[in-house]
């Protein structure tokens, strides 16, 4: 797992690395001596201690045995596996196709009552039209080098999943940067349809759509795109992976960040003006 500025997963891996380093130092072993005891090159020890490489269960057992702390291995293995599971490669997720990925999340969406979404780059999936979604997913298929591009079918599945915003029991609070309205990720017709749909969706009783104007003076730069699902999960989108955050303290941190971003946004007539301006500039 490469280091990530988003850091929830990297911090988890770093905690494991720090504990292993502490055990080595407590045992009075150098990096080279620990490596020799474990039967690997000392560079591997350095990579693990610097959280550049996640240790396998076998690695953790060998490490703990080398420092005379074999009874610590079980807890550290669980902690390490948890850290690694937080960070999932996009290519691993889409191996079965983009449509499968969309459908696999349907249950999680249906059991969520409150969606809080911040996006700095794209219209949120729950508010996408089929044409816009197909363009976005087509880019994903190309970037990830998928052997089969099923972005059109995936877009249909995404739109079908998004129908829940018209059903009782679900609420969507979305905040996007004004730049999202301007990024040309689809052709002019698809962009116009998408922007037009934002005017409609933003007026739905279950949807709150806020837009942060580009001219807004801010004390923080735009955050990475993230989704809060009730109070149980935060999904953070990176270039190479999706990070799932489940620790209550971190979820609360994202919730506070969302409220701060929501306070920068404009709503109602002001938001509509920004969308209409973007539509006009398409032509």
Report on the architecture of this protein.
With 283 residues, this protein is α/β, with parallel strands linked by helices. Mean pLDDT is 85; it is low at 1-6. It is built from 13 helices and seven strands. The protein folds into two domains: 8-85, Orthogonal Bundle (434 Repressor (Amino-terminal Domain)), CATH 1.10.260; 89-282, 2-Layer Sandwich (Endonuclease, Chain A), CATH 3.30.870. The chain has a seven-stranded mixed beta sheet with strand order 1-7-6-5-2-3-4. Helix 2 packs across helix 3 (42-49) and helix 4 (57-66) runs antiparallel to helix 5. 51% of the residues lie in helices and 13% in strands. A hairpin with a 3-residue loop joins strand 5 (226-229) and strand 6. One of its GO terms (molecular function) is DNA binding. It comes from Streptomyces antibioticus.
């Amino acid at each position: 797992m490469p280091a990530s500025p988003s850091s929830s997963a990297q911090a988890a891996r770093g905690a494991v690395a720090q504990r292993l380093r502490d055990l080595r130092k407590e045992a009075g072993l150098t990096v080279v001596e620990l490596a020799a005891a474990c039967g690997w090159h000392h560079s591997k020890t350095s990579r693990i201690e610097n959280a550049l490489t996640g240790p396998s269960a076998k690695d953790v057992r060998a490490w703990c045995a080398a420092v005379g702390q074999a009874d610590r291995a079980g807890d550290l293995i669980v902690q390490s596996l948890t850290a690694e599971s937080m960070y999932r490669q996009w290519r691993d997720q889409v191996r079965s196709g983009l449509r499968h990925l969309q459908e696999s999340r349907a249950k999680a969406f249906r059991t969520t009552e409150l969606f809080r979404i911040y996006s700095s780059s794209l219209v949120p999936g729950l508010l996408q039209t089929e044409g816009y979604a197909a363009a976005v997913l087509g880019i994903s298929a190309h970037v990830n080098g998928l052997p089969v591009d099923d972005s059109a079918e995936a877009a249909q599945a995404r739109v079908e999943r998004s129908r829940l915003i018209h059903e009782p029991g679900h609420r969507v609070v979305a905040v996007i940067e004004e730049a999202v309205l301007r990024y040309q990720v689809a052709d002019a017709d698809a962009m116009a349809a998408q922007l037009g749909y934002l005017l409609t969706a933003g007026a739905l009783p279950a949807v709150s759509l806020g837009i942060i104007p580009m001219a807004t003076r801010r004390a923080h730069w735009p955050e990475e795109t993230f989704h809060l699902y009730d109070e149980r999960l935060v999904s953070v989108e990176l270039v190479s992976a999706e990070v799932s955050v489940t620790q209550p303290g971190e979820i609360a941190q994202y919730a506070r960040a969302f409220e701060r971003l929501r306070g920068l946004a404009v709503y109602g007539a002001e938001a509509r003006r920004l969308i209409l301006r973007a539509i006009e500039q398409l032509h």
